[in-house]
Design brief:
Layout: H1 11-27, H2 31-52, H3 64-77, H4 84-102, H5 109-131
């Protein structure tokens, strides 16, 4: 059996990779990148959960980020599989990512980046427990 290519990874592995990148960027004071990678770690973890319940998102669907949040909330938060605060993390980190990507001046970016990473770490860990019990 040959080695797996980096492109041949599962969604949870991608979420973990993004989380590791967020930590690296945070440690190197690249706060905007840390915020972005924190969000994407959660996005991929949420998609792994949706895949696990048979609700995968279409690959090139317009508005995939909002759709992911909506479907995750509908099928995994409202059904009490995950607690409500976890669902709010996705929306909050998407908002932070958009601000970090587009705003020229940011207040308290280091604090936001650290909080984003901590929340993403919790989110990814919960998703991993759900998908791989």
């Amino acid at each position: 059996m040959g080695k797996r290519k980096e492109t041949d990874i599962g969604r949870l592995e991608l979420a973990q990779l993004m989380l590791n990148d967020a930590r690296f960027n945070l440690q190197h004071r690249r706060f905007r990148c840390a915020i972005s990678r924190s969000y994407y770690a959660c996005h991929h973890a949420a998609r792994a959960c949706l895949d696990a319940i048979g609700r995968p998102l279409q690959k090139s669907r317009a508005g995939a980020h909002t759709a992911c949040i909506t479907i995750f909330s509908l099928h995994l938060i409202k059904t009490q599989i995950f607690p409500v605060p976890l669902g709010k993390v996705l929306r909050k980190l998407l908002r932070f990512r958009e601000i970090a990507d587009y705003e020229l001046k940011l207040k308290h970016i280091e604090i936001v980046a650290e909080a984003s990473y901590r929340q993403a770490e919790s989110f990814v860990n919960e998703a991993m427990k759900y998908v791989n019990p």
